[in-house]
Amino acid sequence: MRFVKLHGAGNDYIYLNGFEVEVPEPAALARRMSERHFGVGADGLILCLPPEGEGDVRMRIFNADGSEAEMCGNGVRGLARFAIEQGLAKGDTVRVETLAGIREIRLERDPGGRIIKGACGMGRPRLAAQDIPVLLDGERVVDVPLIVGGQTLWMTCVNMGNPHAVFYADSAADWPLETLGPKIEHHKLFPERVNTHVVEVVSLEDVVMRTWERGSGMTLACGTGASAVCVAGVLTGRTGRRILAHVPGGDLAVEWPDDRAEVLLTGPVEEVFTGEFPDA
């Protein structure tokens, strides 16, 4: 089974050509391939499949624990590059069907013609508690308390096709994300679990963020998460509508032009390696 591994700012995924290969148990395969000691090693598995509607290709994404996610901002950029390089899409704009809707990715090339970056419309954020979902009342979940391990944290929640909880701290590096992340992910208020982000505001245009990703744990970047952080910054008045998010794996540029607009995410996409994985 031939695969390609790509990453976007360190958020790495394994890609399979579902036009050619049938994967009857993708959740189990995702767990095997994503394992970093005995498998390929990745944050998850992405299948590039024939479209069912108006897209060029269709994406299914499975986290390292085998759970299926709705969308991934870094993963969908990689899928667009994968689709072009596999001959499944043409040009430098790819429309991808996801569980969160169609996403259009515009790819950029270096002077040698190599795809190095992608810009993606991430859709409009959903902000009502029931749309996150989080078991709270209200149209918006902005700077509300969350009790975790006997301490009170203040969170802002955003759905960017998948659920996110954003927390602010004086130092993102010192915030105990490794211990709080899994507790927040599985907190009883989040019926579909949640992605957790801690953010250090450097200026109105710059933030440092770290991520505990639902189903994958600590990751070097999260595209939907960076989008949620941009929205949360606007909602709380901490940042402007255009930010550069410094994540452990690199930088992601995000813009939310106005309250009625979709979020725009731009970031790198790089191939790591290709290989063969045993079918059995």
Please write the CATH class name of the largest domain: Alpha Beta
Strand content: 35-45%
Level of helix content? 10-25%
CATH superfamily of the largest domain: Diaminopimelate Epimerase, Chain A, domain 1
Shape: globular
Number of strands: 18
Determine the CATH topology of the largest domain: Diaminopimelate Epimerase, Chain A, domain 1
Radius of gyration: 18 Å
Count of helical stretches: 4
Instruction: List low-confidence stretches.
Output: none
Overall pLDDT confidence: 97
Q: Helix and strand succession?
A: EEHEEEHEEEEEEHEEEHEEEE
Can you tell me about this structure?
The chain is α+β, with helices and mostly antiparallel strands and 280 residues long. It folds into two domains: 2-122 and 267-275, Diaminopimelate Epimerase, Chain A, domain 1, CATH 3.10.310.10; 129-261, Roll (Diaminopimelate Epimerase, Chain A, domain 1). The protein is built from four helices and 18 strands. The protein has helices at residues 26-34, 73-85, 177-185, 223-236, and strands at residues 2-8, 11-17, 44-49, 57-63, 68-69, 93-98, 101-109, 115-121, 144-148, 151-159, 163-168, 195-201, 206-213, 217-219, 242-247, 250-255, 264-268, 270-276. The protein has an 18-stranded mixed sheet that branches. β10 and β11 (163-168) form a beta hairpin. The N and C termini lie close together (10 Å). The model has no long low-confidence stretch (mean pLDDT 97).
